[in-house]
Amino acid sequence: MKKLFSRLLRRLGRRAARTPITFRLTSVPANTPAGATLYLASSRNGWTTDDPAYAFSFDPSRGGYILVLPPGRGTLDYKICRGSWPTIETDADNLAIPNRRYLFGQDAREVPLQVLNWEDQGGCIPPRQHSASPNVHILSLAFALPQLRRTRRVWVYLPPGYAEGASRYPVLYMQDGQNVFDQYTSFAGEWGVDETLDALAASGQDPAGCIVVATDNSAKHRLDEYSPWRNRRTGRGGEGKQYVDFLVDTLKPYIDHHYRTQPERDSTGIMGSSMGGLLATYAALRHPAVFGRVGVFSPAYWFAGQALLTYVAQQSPRPDTRWCFVCGTEESPTMVKLMAAVCDALHAAGVPDKNLSFKPLLDGQHAEWFWRREFEPAYRWLFADAGLPALAAASPGATSLA
Q1: 295/202 same-domain check
Q2: What is the DSSP-derived secondary structure letter of residue 320?
Q3: Are 209 and 159 in contact (CB under 8 A)?
Q4: What's the confidence (pLDDT) of residue 48?
Q5: CATH number of domain containing 52
Q6: What is the pLDDT of residue 65?
Q7: What is the CA radius of gyration of the chain?
Q8: What letter would DSSP give residue 385?
Q9: Helix 335-348 crosses helix 306-315 at what angle (to 10 degrees)?
Q10: d(Cα 112, Cα 24) in Å, to the nearest integer?
């Protein structure tokens, strides 16, 4: 009887694993624009906000918007939006909500959902307050990006005491600038980079300090600009070369000319999350003489596929570049696997273990709160030997599998 029962359970499990998952939106805000297409942005599609394969269809006979996804394994983190991060769903008070989560093989195969609000349709709800430190300023609302004939808002963080001194500082270039310093402009919370660096300086743990330059993404062109390779399924990508050349040939020379920087590669870092993590990886490989410190958080390596690993082998990365990789173990079925493959490729290309930090964390998620928490230990590790006074050892925020 026990064997029969076990076989039955296994059979039911296999059947469930083959059963599609249906997400059903039973209600949406009354101010949802007529004809709007609703999407599920998730850890399964690299948090793409306008992926046609993850678009809901309206089916009155089934009670609302319907999206059917193929079965999978592990967890699916997701949110609902109308095609961009500014149109992401929020709670009844128009505040950010945590990622929704679906557990394959455990949760029901039909999931009823309600969207309470859209961030850009908050009505009379008071806007979020600005949270950027006084030493953060906007360099330009429309800094020229001539390589792509576009403009972009650029933020600059200056270390405490910058105005009173004559010291020169290392520089960290970050992507998705909306989310780096200010909760007012962020999509789902900010990294708090300014608060973290201010606290390190105030406690004497980082007396040298660092300039941080953060460039906003363009919601419309983000996937295109953050990858040099086109993704066949989404049809996006392919402008990463031009965007990286903007960072190296246009933005960095301006920053080095107008601010007291240490322009050398050992004092220049680049960092990003998700697609920004893919972009940071590519930038450091394309311009090894420019970027000597690379922070990669929850990278969307799935978007590039084998092309990225081939590029690592072709570029012969410099062995003295420091690479810090951070992600959650359950972000997606391929996250840790692909991140480990890139680390292995870098190691095989000559980067020694001492310059590779591989940190998958059990509680990590594809979310700003996680990247905010892990920024400090990543920054400490990346810049500890970049000509700065040694920083105190940073303990990880959660159990690491590395």
Answers
A1: yes
A2: T
A3: yes
A4: 86
A5: 2.60.40.10
A6: 92
A7: 22
A8: T
A9: 20
A10: 5
- What is the C-alpha separation between 286 and 247, in angstroms, rounded? 12
DSSP character for 248?
I
CA distances to 26, 91, 93, 313 from 122, in Å: 20, 10, 8, 48
- Measured in degrees and rounded to the nearest 5, phi and psi for residue 21 equal -105, 130
Q: Residue 83 contacts by C-beta under 8 Å, 6 or more apart in sequence?
A: 36, 37, 39, 49, 50
Domain with 98, as residue range(s), is 18-121
- Which residue, among 179, 132, 183, 175, has the nearest Cα to 157 in the 3D structure? 132
Instruction: Point out the residues of the chain with pLDDT beneath 50.
Output: 1-16, 387-402
With tokens 């980067």, the residue in question is 351
> Side chain identity at 37, as an amino acid letter?
T
Encoding tokens for residue 90? 């929020």
Distance (Å, rounded) from C-alpha 225 to C-alpha 232? 16
| Cα 394 from Cα 385, distance rounded (Å) | 14
Question: Six-digit token pair at 19?
Answer: 């059963």
What mean pLDDT, rounded, does the chain reach? 88
Does residue 147 share a domain with residue 110?
no
